[in-house]
Design goal:
The structure holds two protein chains of two kinds. By secondary structure, chain A is an alpha+beta fold. Chain A has helices spanning 2-6, 8-13, 26-36, 49-53, 87-101; strands at 16-22, 42-44, 67-71, 77-82. Helix content of chain A is 40%, strand content 20%. In chain A, the strands form two sheets. A two-stranded parallel sheet of chain A has the order 1-2. In chain A, strands 3-4 form a two-stranded antiparallel sheet. In chain A, strand 3 (67-71) and strand 4 (77-82) form a beta hairpin. Chain A is globular. The two termini of chain A are 26 Å apart. Chain B is mainly beta. The chains are: A alpha+beta, B mainly beta.
């Protein structure tokens, strides 16, 4: 999350914005986000339907798997990677997508 | 106002997460070469003076907040007598533009898993990477495990972003530190140069 926060100015340059989604409750996310200094939205999804939709809800576990998803302006999923975010890969992909799609 | 066209969703595993696991490099292809003057050119991006041969190269898997490379030395004495230092392209912290602010953010997470009681021994402005920087020396103690660590963190700038160097020297509580390792670290930091613009500056 800190990595995304550090890159916000670059995401803005590529007309992208970032959201975090977690199964933690709102209060926990608020505390956590404040402690890190995160300014982008962190969404609480304790009922886990977002995780089920994106297929990152391990069966029987109260957490999401770690996944980065990039959705374009038409709502099409263009990028999916599991594990820790590869920020360089993400930024290069966003740059390409922005050039490809032009200014929204 | 610009309309944002792309959305990144990041799923968070849990409130706390683990960074990559350190491992020593075993690949045959090495990412560095030596100059006739004895300097290391790392991936054509960094130049620095390497530590003496008893320091082992430390590689860390790529990922969030991971350092690229560093050096490690096992010190004489009982566990956990070891010294490690590294260059970090993205040190902990994310919002503060000043070195002092970044220092506060950094130490919220530095050696977080060790649960240490930190004391700042020294904080001073320094010249690093061709500009102004900040050096902080701390000592952390774990009264439960009876271990301690002396660390020095140096913050500098690469383009608009803050980068860092740090060294940690672990000892049993009654052990004594070997400050010569910190001199080797200081030489490494003083010799460190960027040979090209960072990835972020070229976007």
């Amino acid at each position: 999350m800190e990595g995304h926060q550090r890159n916000l100015y670059l995401y803005d340059r590529f007309n992208a914005r970032v959201l975090g989604v977690s199964r933690d409750d709102v209060l926990t996310l608020k505390y956590w986000g404040n402690s890190l200094g995160v300014t982008f939205p962190l969404l609480s999804n304790i009922t886990a339907f977002v995780g089920a939709y994106f297929d990152i809800q391990p069966e029987g576990k109260p957490i999401f798997g770690r996944r980065t998803v990039i959705i374009d302006k038409k709502g099409i999923i263009r990028y999916v990677r599991d594990g820790s975010p590869d920020f360089r890969d993400i930024l290069l992909f966003l740059k390409k997508l922005n050039q490809e799609g032009g200014k929204p | 106002m610009k309309k944002k066209g792309l959305t990144i969703l990041c799923f968070v595993l849990a409130v706390a997460w683990l960074s990559g696991c350190a491992s020593t490099e075993t690949s045959k292809k090495v990412p560095y070469r030596m100059t006739p003057q004895g300097m290391v050119i790392w991936e054509d991006e960094f130049e620095f003076m390497p530590p003496p041969p008893d320091w082992k190269l430390l590689r860390v898997e790529a990922g969030e907040n991971d350092v690229n490379f560093g050096f490690m030395r096992s010190d004489p004495g009982p566990f956990p007598s070891v010294t490690t230092f590294a260059y970090d392209e993205d040190p902990f912290g994310c919002t503060a533009a000043s070195f002092e602010g970044r220092e506060r953010e950094f130490f919220k997470r530095f050696l977080f898993n060790a649960i240490l009681q930190f004391q700042i021994l020294e904080r001073k402005k320094v010249q690093v990477l061709g500009g102004e920087g900040l050096a902080v020396i701390v000592e952390g103690k774990d009264p439960v495990k009876k271990e301690k660590v002396r660390a020095k963190v140096v913050f500098g700038k690469r383009g608009d972003r803050i980068v860092g160097f740090y060294i940690t020297q672990w000892r049993p509580m009654e052990g004594s530190y070997d400050l010569s390792a910190f001199e080797i670290f200081d030489k490494f930091v003083a010799s460190f140069k960027f040979l090209k613009k960072s990835f972020y500056e070229t976007l």
